[in-house]
Amino acid sequence: MSAPIIVFDLDGTLVDTAPDLVDTLNFILAREGLPPVPFAAARNMIGGGARVLIERGLKADGRLGDAAEIERLYGDFVAHYGEHLADRSLPFPGVVAAIEGLAARGCRFAICTNKLEGLSVRLLDALGLSRHFAVVCGQDTFGLQKPDPEMLLATIRQAGGSPGRSVMVGDSHNDIEVARAAKIPVVAVDFGYTETPVSLLGPDLVISHFDKLPGAVWNLLGVEQPVGSGDRHKYGLA
């Protein structure tokens, strides 16, 4: 039996990347002579990738950039962000403890994000998190973006898992929609980047801290929560 695969979104789920993403957005806008987007508003614009963030940033000033302008600003954004992606970004509290606890009971982990794969890997490396993940899949890994269900299913396959033994963890409608479309159970964190409360978006479970993640995973996999390392075989997790 394949190991359970826990698939995480990155921005707003595992790592609070908003400070560096918003700083980069406002740096790019300032170079264009545009006003900055207030942090609270810009934080909830994150989640669809850098192009979407730029489009939303322009729209906040009443501008609709054409395709050529968006691509130019996107190149500038990626270049600047790549040099500052871990200036102020930090894992959310409890991330490492939750992952290590689940790993001790046989789970494997993957990233499925609309961020570019290379930037995702660099961020995880900078924060010392890369060693926990079997695969890191971004929008350029398969040429797909969430909420296309094939992106999530391909991530699970690349991690060596099966959909019936997988759980998605995210913070926004894209994560919940991709899980629903792929028929994967989904846990939503309520501290991420979304204007609509995740409880209204239809996840299977909502958690407010990563110390609740292990129990949520066992619940959604239909497994009684293990109490010790000797329970791996008993619960089919070895």
Q: Considering DSSP H and I runs of 4 or more, what fraction of the residues is helical?
A: 25-40%
Oligomer state of the chains in this structure: single chain
Strand residues, percent: 5-15%
What order do the helices and strands follow?
EEHHHHEHEHEHEHEEH
- Largest sheet: spatial strand order: 5-4-1-6-7-8
Distance between the termini: 8 Å
Shape: elongated
- Count every helix, treating DSSP H or I runs of 4 or more residues as helices: 9
The chain-level structural class is alpha/beta
Uncertain stretches of 5 or more adjacent residues: 229-238
User: How big is the Rg?
Assistant: 18 Å
Number of β-strand runs: 8
Describe the structure in your own words.
There is one protein chain. The chain has 238 residues and is an alpha/beta fold. Helices cover 40% and strands 12% of the residues. The chain contains nine helices and eight strands. The chain has helices at residues 18-31, 39-43, 50-59, 67-84, 95-103, 117-126, 149-158, 173-182, 213-221; strands at residues 5-8, 15-16, 90-91, 108-112, 135-137, 166-170, 186-189, 205-207. A six-stranded parallel beta sheet has the order 5-4-1-6-7-8, sandwiched between helices. Strands 2-3 form a two-stranded antiparallel ribbon. Helix 1 packs across helix 4, helix 3 crosses helix 4 and helix 7 (149-158) crosses helix 8. The longest helix is centred in the N-terminal third of the chain and has 18 residues, at 67-84. Residues 229-238 have low confidence and may be disordered.
